[in-house]
Write a structure and sequence with these properties.
This protein is α/β, with parallel strands linked by helices. Helix content is 32%, strand content 23%. It has five helices and ten strands; from the N terminus they run H-H-E-E-E-E-E-H-E-E-E-H-E-H-E. Strand 7 and strand 8 form a beta hairpin. It is globular.
Protein backbone atom coordinates (compact mmCIF):
# COMPACT_ATOMS: atom_id res chain seq x y z
CA UNK A 1 0.00 0.00 0.00
CA UNK A 2 2.85 2.33 0.90
CA UNK A 3 4.63 1.59 -2.38
CA UNK A 4 1.42 2.25 -4.30
CA UNK A 5 0.93 5.64 -2.63
CA UNK A 6 4.57 6.52 -3.24
CA UNK A 7 4.26 5.59 -6.92
CA UNK A 8 1.12 7.72 -7.23
CA UNK A 9 2.88 10.69 -5.64
CA UNK A 10 5.87 10.29 -7.97
CA UNK A 11 3.62 10.15 -11.03
CA UNK A 12 1.70 13.21 -9.83
CA UNK A 13 4.96 15.09 -9.26
CA UNK A 14 6.32 14.17 -12.69
CA UNK A 15 3.06 15.25 -14.33
CA UNK A 16 3.19 18.57 -12.45
CA UNK A 17 6.82 19.14 -13.44
CA UNK A 18 5.99 18.32 -17.07
CA UNK A 19 3.22 20.94 -17.14
CA UNK A 20 5.53 23.55 -15.58
CA UNK A 21 8.29 22.84 -18.10
CA UNK A 22 5.79 22.89 -20.96
CA UNK A 23 4.54 26.34 -19.93
CA UNK A 24 8.12 27.64 -19.66
CA UNK A 25 8.75 26.25 -23.15
CA UNK A 26 5.63 27.96 -24.52
CA UNK A 27 6.52 31.29 -22.93
CA UNK A 28 10.08 31.30 -24.21
CA UNK A 29 9.20 29.93 -27.64
CA UNK A 30 6.71 32.74 -28.30
CA UNK A 31 9.50 35.29 -28.34
CA UNK A 32 12.01 32.94 -29.92
CA UNK A 33 9.85 32.35 -32.97
CA UNK A 34 9.55 36.09 -33.49
CA UNK A 35 13.31 36.46 -33.68
CA UNK A 36 14.36 33.37 -35.64
CA UNK A 37 13.37 32.04 -39.06
CA UNK A 38 11.01 29.07 -39.12
CA UNK A 39 13.72 26.67 -40.31
CA UNK A 40 15.72 27.39 -37.11
CA UNK A 41 13.24 26.31 -34.43
CA UNK A 42 13.88 23.40 -32.13
CA UNK A 43 15.69 20.17 -32.90
CA UNK A 44 13.75 19.48 -36.07
CA UNK A 45 15.16 20.89 -39.27
CA UNK A 46 11.84 22.55 -40.11
CA UNK A 47 8.94 23.09 -37.73
CA UNK A 48 5.46 22.98 -39.30
CA UNK A 49 3.95 26.45 -39.61
CA UNK A 50 0.77 25.60 -37.72
CA UNK A 51 2.67 23.99 -34.88
CA UNK A 52 4.24 27.40 -34.24
CA UNK A 53 0.92 29.18 -34.70
CA UNK A 54 -0.59 26.89 -32.07
CA UNK A 55 2.17 28.02 -29.69
CA UNK A 56 1.32 31.65 -30.46
CA UNK A 57 -2.39 31.14 -29.75
CA UNK A 58 -1.76 29.51 -26.39
CA UNK A 59 0.77 32.20 -25.49
CA UNK A 60 -1.66 34.99 -26.38
CA UNK A 61 -3.91 33.72 -23.59
CA UNK A 62 -1.28 34.74 -21.06
CA UNK A 63 -1.13 38.34 -22.30
CA UNK A 64 -4.85 39.15 -22.58
CA UNK A 65 -7.31 39.96 -19.79
CA UNK A 66 -11.02 39.18 -20.09
CA UNK A 67 -13.89 40.66 -18.06
CA UNK A 68 -14.42 38.79 -14.80
CA UNK A 69 -17.85 37.47 -15.82
CA UNK A 70 -16.27 35.64 -18.77
CA UNK A 71 -13.62 33.84 -16.73
CA UNK A 72 -15.72 32.55 -13.86
CA UNK A 73 -15.43 28.85 -14.75
CA UNK A 74 -12.29 26.71 -14.59
CA UNK A 75 -11.57 26.53 -18.33
CA UNK A 76 -10.15 28.88 -20.93
CA UNK A 77 -11.23 27.97 -24.46
CA UNK A 78 -9.57 28.34 -27.85
CA UNK A 79 -12.14 28.02 -30.63
CA UNK A 80 -11.42 27.14 -34.26
CA UNK A 81 -13.99 27.98 -36.93
CA UNK A 82 -13.49 26.62 -40.42
CA UNK A 83 -11.15 23.85 -41.58
CA UNK A 84 -8.77 22.89 -38.77
CA UNK A 85 -5.15 23.23 -40.01
CA UNK A 86 -3.59 22.41 -36.63
CA UNK A 87 -3.82 18.60 -36.82
CA UNK A 88 -2.78 17.34 -33.34
CA UNK A 89 -0.53 20.28 -32.42
CA UNK A 90 -2.80 21.35 -29.57
CA UNK A 91 -2.74 17.94 -27.88
CA UNK A 92 0.20 18.71 -25.51
CA UNK A 93 -1.43 21.90 -24.19
CA UNK A 94 -4.94 20.61 -23.52
CA UNK A 95 -3.73 19.27 -20.19
CA UNK A 96 -2.08 22.46 -18.91
CA UNK A 97 -3.48 25.41 -16.97
CA UNK A 98 -3.12 29.13 -17.57
CA UNK A 99 -3.96 31.39 -14.62
CA UNK A 100 -5.40 28.31 -12.93
CA UNK A 101 -7.70 27.44 -15.83
CA UNK A 102 -7.55 24.37 -18.02
CA UNK A 103 -6.95 25.01 -21.72
CA UNK A 104 -9.71 23.50 -23.87
CA UNK A 105 -9.84 23.38 -27.68
CA UNK A 106 -13.31 23.82 -29.20
CA UNK A 107 -13.67 22.98 -32.90
CA UNK A 108 -16.74 24.55 -34.51
CA UNK A 109 -16.19 23.22 -38.04
CA UNK A 110 -17.28 25.25 -41.06
CA UNK A 111 -19.16 28.45 -40.30
CA UNK A 112 -22.95 28.23 -40.19
CA UNK A 113 -25.86 30.00 -38.59
CA UNK A 114 -26.58 29.20 -34.97
CA UNK A 115 -23.02 28.51 -33.87
CA UNK A 116 -22.14 29.97 -30.46
CA UNK A 117 -18.80 31.37 -31.57
CA UNK A 118 -18.66 33.57 -28.49
CA UNK A 119 -18.42 30.46 -26.30
CA UNK A 120 -14.63 30.77 -26.15
CA UNK A 121 -12.03 33.31 -25.09
CA UNK A 122 -9.98 33.15 -28.30
CA UNK A 123 -11.36 32.32 -31.74
CA UNK A 124 -9.08 31.35 -34.62
CA UNK A 125 -10.76 31.98 -37.98
CA UNK A 126 -9.40 29.63 -40.61
CA UNK A 127 -8.58 30.78 -44.13
CA UNK A 128 -11.39 28.53 -45.38
CA UNK A 129 -13.83 31.11 -43.93
CA UNK A 130 -12.44 34.16 -45.74
CA UNK A 131 -15.82 34.79 -47.39
CA UNK A 132 -17.51 34.72 -43.99
CA UNK A 133 -15.04 36.83 -42.03
CA UNK A 134 -17.32 39.87 -41.82
CA UNK A 135 -20.29 37.74 -40.78
CA UNK A 136 -18.18 36.13 -38.08
CA UNK A 137 -16.94 39.54 -36.91
CA UNK A 138 -20.55 40.75 -36.69
CA UNK A 139 -21.46 37.62 -34.70
CA UNK A 140 -18.74 38.50 -32.19
CA UNK A 141 -19.81 42.13 -31.78
CA UNK A 142 -20.27 42.96 -28.09
CA UNK A 143 -18.63 39.66 -27.06
CA UNK A 144 -15.17 39.73 -25.43
CA UNK A 145 -13.57 37.18 -27.76
CA UNK A 146 -10.03 37.62 -29.09
CA UNK A 147 -10.38 37.06 -32.85
CA UNK A 148 -7.21 35.76 -34.55
CA UNK A 149 -6.59 34.71 -38.15
CA UNK A 150 -3.84 34.28 -40.72
CA UNK A 151 -6.03 35.63 -43.52
CA UNK A 152 -4.65 38.70 -45.28
CA UNK A 153 -6.61 41.93 -44.64
CA UNK A 154 -8.17 40.32 -41.56
CA UNK A 155 -7.64 43.45 -39.48
CA UNK A 156 -9.61 45.50 -41.99
CA UNK A 157 -12.65 43.35 -41.15
CA UNK A 158 -12.41 44.28 -37.45
CA UNK A 159 -10.10 41.36 -36.72
CA UNK A 160 -7.81 41.67 -33.72
CA UNK A 161 -4.60 39.74 -34.36
CA UNK A 162 -3.26 38.80 -37.79
CA UNK A 163 -0.62 36.03 -37.96
CA UNK A 164 1.65 35.87 -41.00
CA UNK A 165 5.02 34.78 -42.32
CA UNK A 166 7.48 37.53 -43.23
CA UNK A 167 10.97 36.77 -44.50
CA UNK A 168 10.70 33.26 -43.09
CA UNK A 169 9.62 34.46 -39.64
CA UNK A 170 6.25 34.14 -37.92
CA UNK A 171 4.99 37.64 -37.06
CA UNK A 172 1.75 39.30 -36.01
CA UNK A 173 -0.10 42.62 -36.31
CA UNK A 174 -2.58 43.88 -33.72
CA UNK A 175 -5.74 45.96 -34.09
CA UNK A 176 -5.84 47.49 -30.61
CA UNK A 177 -9.02 49.43 -31.39
CA UNK A 178 -10.98 46.23 -32.07
CA UNK A 179 -9.60 44.63 -28.92
CA UNK A 180 -10.59 47.56 -26.70
CA UNK A 181 -14.03 47.84 -28.30
CA UNK A 182 -15.07 44.46 -26.86
CA UNK A 183 -13.65 45.11 -23.40
CA UNK A 184 -10.40 43.15 -23.67
CA UNK A 185 -7.06 44.33 -22.31
CA UNK A 186 -3.73 43.31 -23.82
CA UNK A 187 -0.38 43.38 -22.07
CA UNK A 188 2.02 46.00 -23.42
CA UNK A 189 4.82 43.42 -23.37
CA UNK A 190 3.09 41.54 -26.19
CA UNK A 191 2.55 44.70 -28.21
CA UNK A 192 6.30 45.33 -28.25
CA UNK A 193 6.77 42.26 -30.40
CA UNK A 194 4.02 43.10 -32.90
CA UNK A 195 5.15 44.32 -36.30
CA UNK A 196 2.33 46.83 -36.39
CA UNK A 197 -0.24 48.05 -33.85
CA UNK A 198 -3.35 49.85 -35.08
CA UNK A 199 -4.61 52.33 -32.50
CA UNK A 200 -6.42 55.67 -32.29
Amino acid sequence: MLNKNLTTQILHYRRHQYKKSLMKYINSLLFLVILLPISSYGKEKIQPEYKLKAVFLVSFLKFVSWPQRITNDDTIRIGIVGDDPFENYFNPVEDIRIAGKKVVIKRFGRFKQGQKLHDCQLLFISDSEKRNTRKIAQRLTDHPVLAVSDRKYFLEDNGMIYLFIEHGKLRFDVNLNSIKNVGLKIDSRLLRYARKVIRD
